[in-house]
Amino acid sequence: MNLIAHSRGVWIAAATAVACSLVMTVPATAQEKSKTNLKVAVFSHIGEVQTISGMMKAAVEDAKARGWTVETFDGRGDMVAVNNQVNSFISRGFDALINVASPNDQMTGVINKAKKAGIPFVSCFSGMAPNITVDIGDNNVVDGAIAAAELVGRIDGQGTVVKMNWNVLPALQERDRGFHAVVAGYPNIKLKELEVKVPGEVEDAYAKTTNLLQADTNHEIKAVWAGSDNFGTAIARAVQKAKRDDIFVVGMDGDPVALDMIRQHTPLTLSVGYDVPGMGHAAVQAVADAVDGKPFVARQMYKKPCLFTVDTVPPEGKSADYKTCGLFSADLK
Asked: Are the C-beta atoms of 150 and 270 separated by less than 8 Å?
C-alpha cells in the first residue's frame, strides 16, 4: 500500500509540474490579448480636418499608452489610397484597424477581408456597414435636427435658408436627414441647397457663400446651416466679410476654430459639438474589448453631444465638460 501511495504521489507531482509548464508556455488567452503589444493602424481619408486629426491623435496616444505599436495613414482625400493602405495593413498582420471618418460604404472589400482574417475593424463617424466591429460617433441625425430646429426658431419658421453640406461622408448624410426632417414642417422656408467640394472645402464654401451673398441684393437670406464646422467657419467669414449682420450661421462639430468664432460674436451663432478626444479613446477601448472577445450590444454606439452658444461656450483654453453640458436651448444656463 505504501508503494502504491508513493507511486500515486510521484504521478500527481509530475502531472502538476507538466500543467504548470503548459500554463507558462501557452500564448495569452483572448481575455488577456489587449494587454499584449498589439499592432494597430489608425487611418483616415482626410486627416487634415481638425476634428478628425483630434480623434486620430487621441486614439494614437491612448493606444501607445497601452503599450501597443501604432501606425497612421492619411489618404488626403484619396479613398483608393486608403483602401490600398488598409489592404497592406491586413497583409502585414495588424491586430486591429481604426478608421476615422472614412466612408465605410466605400471600404466594403477591405472590411470583408479584415473580417475573414479575424481583425477587428473599428470606426468613428464612418457609418454602419456589414462586417465592421463597431462604429462610434454621436447621433448625427439628431445633431442635424437640433441645429436646424435652433435655426428655425430664430427666424420664426420663415424666410430663405441656405443649406451647405458634403453628402459623401455618412455622418454628414445623417445630419442632412436631420435637417430635412425639421425643415419639412415649415412651408414658409425657402431652401437653397449647395454641395461643397472636398478636398478644398474651406475655399469652396467661402467662394460659394460670397457668390450667394453678391446675388442676394434684396437681403432675402436669413441663415445658413452648415453640415460641418470645418467649412461652416469659412461660411461665417464670408458673411462677415460681406458685412451681412442680418445673417447667422449654425454648424456642427464644436471644433476649436468654431468655438473661438462663437466667443468673438461672429455670424457663427452656435455649434452642436461632440467630445473629439473621447471618440478616439472610445475607439481604442472598442479594439481592446474586441480582441478580448467581449460582445457589443450594437454595431453603432453614440456619445453625447452639446450645444455651444455665446452663453455656453467654454472659456478660451478650457475644454467642455461633455458629461454636464446642455444639449437643448431651454436647459442652457
From this structure: yes
pLDDT value for 72: 98
CATH for 287:
3.40.50.2300
Domain assignment of residue 117, given as a range = 31-136+277-302
Q: Does residue 167 contact residue 226 with C-beta atoms inside 8 Å?
A: no
Residues sharing a CB contact under 8 Å with residue 203, sequence separation 6 or more, in sequence order: 234
Long-range contacts of 128-132 (CB under 8 A, 24+ apart): 128/104, 128/170, 128/299, 128/300, 129/104, 129/105, 132/104, 132/299
CB 259 within 8 A of CB 314: yes
pTM: 0.86
- Which residue spans within the chain are E strands per DSSP? 39-44, 69-74, 96-100, 121-124, 134-137, 159-165, 189-195, 221-226, 248-253, 268-273, 300-302, 306-308
Indicate the residue type of 21: S
Give domain status of residue 180, yes or no. Answer: yes
Q: In whole angstroms, what is the distance from residue 88 CA to residue 244 CA?
A: 50
pLDDT at position 292 over 50: yes
Q: Let me know whether 160 and 281 are in one domain.
A: no
Cα(248)–Cα(152) distance, rounded to whole angstroms? 11
Per-residue pLDDT tens digits for 18-61: 344 444 444 455 458 999 999 999 999 999 999 999 999 999 99
Residues 117 and 258 in one domain: no
